[in-house]
């Protein structure tokens, strides 16, 4: 599996971010071909001090090639272009292959 994580620093207007994200951006995500699963949260906390991020999004893909294809698709490009409509604090995007752990 391959994971895409989008980290959002605090925006200029948190209420606008939440409203736009839920009302406009997530409906686009729901129709995005490629992810096996996705999730998000506005309740980002640090174990100590203030969290550097306001919100987080993560999506699971079968592999890196599937993620690349989803991002390059017209729908993926539309999602990327939409970020400027709510993420005034910027965005940090990371991705990585997921290794299964055993205890």
From TrEMBL:
Pfam family, one: EthD
Coiled coil feature spans: none
InterPro entries associated with the record: Dimeric_a/b-barrel, EthD_dom
Gene3D superfamilies in UniProt: 3.30.70.100
Domain EthD as annotated: residue spans: 11-88
NCBIfam families: EthD family reductase
Protein name: EthD family reductase
Organism the protein comes from: Streptomyces coeruleorubidus
